[in-house]
Structures are given as structure tokens and as C-alpha cells.
Design goal:
Keywords: Signal. This is PEPxxWA-CTERM sorting domain-containing protein. InterPro entries: Ice-binding_C. The protein has two domains: 47 residues; 192 residues, Sandwich (Jelly Rolls), CATH 2.60.120. It is globular and about 50 Å long. With 242 residues, the chain is α+β, with helices and mostly antiparallel strands. Helices cover 17% and strands 38% of the residues. Helix 1 runs antiparallel to helix 3. The structure holds calcium ion (3 copies). The site of one calcium ion has 8 residues, from strand 5. One calcium ion binds next to strand 7.
Length: 242
């Protein structure tokens, strides 16, 4: 095998290494909570369990019970999940189904939703126009249903968003404690029975330190140099046998 082929095969093997995410926390709000070994959990706060309506969205995971937040104010009271004693890690990724419930009034009505990690926005400005306004914005989340009734409150219809596609919810993180805050805000936010939000199928993954990810540039140089030396040694051996 030529030196260039040796290096190419080696690089292909490295590129094919699987991603190294592991489950940190998950909750479907129907009693199934999973937590990585040794990790402490507080919350999620400020939410009640409400019943999802029966419908096509059940297959997407908005099913059984979901965590419902109806608080008022600007900002409204956040639903907070705190994870402590997290093993050494480099990255965290958050996914959940977001229900924008009842009479959201969009950008024009100043009704917004955001997610923060340790006090810093990961995604913000999320809004929809269940009642009035014309702007939908999901920060990279994928709209699954609009104009449906996701719950028993039929005061305007609801919107369901899959937040697993929002790039902002995958972020560098290494501290042993992570505080996630889910919150509505905006001068038009009314809350109560008029406007609310909910989440279901919350899944948080993390990347433990020391697990093979994409090698650093210095590591690449060492590996390529090492394979080059191996190729030279093979050629020398062939010359010796000739
Ligand atoms: Ca559920
Ligand atoms: Ca509703
Ligand atoms: Ca409003």
C-alpha cells in the first residue's frame, strides 16, 4: 500500500468514528425519568402536569402528560432544571417538544420564548401567531403542527415545535453544574389560561471528556506523520528483500 493510500485509509477510519454523546437526563413527564449515574437533579420547577389531547401529535411524543407553564410577567417565571455533579464533559445538547399553547400573538404582540443555560441565551425570540400577528420564528426548531388543539384548553389553537433541530441547543459546556431555564417574556405576554407553553420528551445528552471526538489539529499532524514513517519503513523492508 502506498503511503498516500495508508494515510487515506487511516483518515477514513477516524472520520467514521461514532459521535460520543451519552444520555445525561431524560423525562417524558409520564413517570419515565433517566439520569446519568451520580448526577443530581433539581426540578423542573414551576410547571404542572397537564394531559395532552389525543391526536396525530401523539406519535411525535406529545402524549400522555406534558409539563405546562402558565406564569405571567415579563419575563414570566422560568421552568428551571438544575443538574449537578455532572462528570467531566465538553458539550451538552438539549432536545424537547415545545407546545406554544393558546393565544400567542407573535412578534407583533410581543410574546416570546427562550432557553438559557447558566443565565445565557441558547435560543430566544421564539414566537408564533396562534391568535394574532404574522410572524412565526422557531430558532431552528421544526414546526410539526399548527392550528391544532394539543390540550383540553381550546382558547385558540396550538403550535407544536420539535426543538431537536435547533442548533443553538447544542453548546460547549464543561462545568459540573448545569442550570437550564425555559421561559416566556415580552411586553405582550399574558400567561394564565390565555397563553401558555409546555414541553414533552425532554432529552439532554452530553459528551464526556476523553471520549474520541474530532481530533485536535496537533493530533492529526502526529497521526499523519506516524503513518508516513510506517510507510517509509515498509518501503525500506521491500528494498531489503529485493
Ligand atoms: Ca408525555
Ligand atoms: Ca389549546
Ligand atoms: Ca400576548
Amino acid at each position: 500500500m502506498s503511503r498516500s493510500k495508508t494515510v487515506a485509509v487511516a483518515l477514513a477510519c477516524i472520520a467514521a468514528s461514532p459521535a460520543s454523546a451519552a444520555l445525561l437526563y431524560s423525562n417524558n413527564f409520564d413517570g419515565a425519568v433517566s439520569v446519568a449515574p451520580g448526577v443530581g437533579v433539581a426540578g423542573p420547577t414551576t410547571s404542572t402536569l397537564e394531559a395532552a389531547a389525543v391526536g396525530a401529535w401523539n406519535a411525535n411524543g406529545w402524549v400522555g402528560q406534558y409539563a405546562d407553564n402558565r406564569t405571567q410577567g415579563n419575563p414570566a417565571t422560568a421552568t428551571v432544571l438544575t443538574l449537578t455533579n455532572i462528570p467531566a464533559h465538553t458539550q451538552v445538547s438539549v432536545a424537547f417538544l415545545l407546545g406554544l399553547l393558546e393565544s400567542w400573538d407573535s412578534l407583533q404582540g410581543n410574546d416570546f420564548f427562550r432557553v438559557q443555560a447558566d443565565g445565557v441565551d441558547l435560543v430566544s425570540g421564539i414566537t408564533t401567531n396562534n391568535a394574532s400577528g404574522s410572524t412565526e420564528f422557531y430558532a431552528g426548531g421544526t414546526r410539526l403542527f399548527k392550528g391544532v388543539q394539543l390540550n383540553g384548553n381550546t382558547f385558540f389553537s396550538d403550535t407544536l415545535v420539535d426543538m431537536s433541530t435547533a442548533a443553538g441547543l447544542t453548546f460547549a459546556h464543561s462545568a459540573p453544574t448545569l442550570t437550564l431555564s425555559f421561559q416566556t417574556y415580552g411586553v405582550g405576554w399574558q400567561g394564565g389560561s390565555d397563553e401558555g407553553w409546555g414541553m414533552d420528551n425532554l432529552v439532554i445528552n452530553f459528551t464526556p471528556s476523553g471520549v474520541a471526538g474530532v481530533p485536535e489539529p496537533a493530533s492529526w499532524a502526529m497521526m499523519i506523520g506516524g503513518f508516513g514513517l510506517a510507510g517509509m519503513a515498509m518501503r525500506r523492508r521491500r528494498v531489503a528483500f529485493a
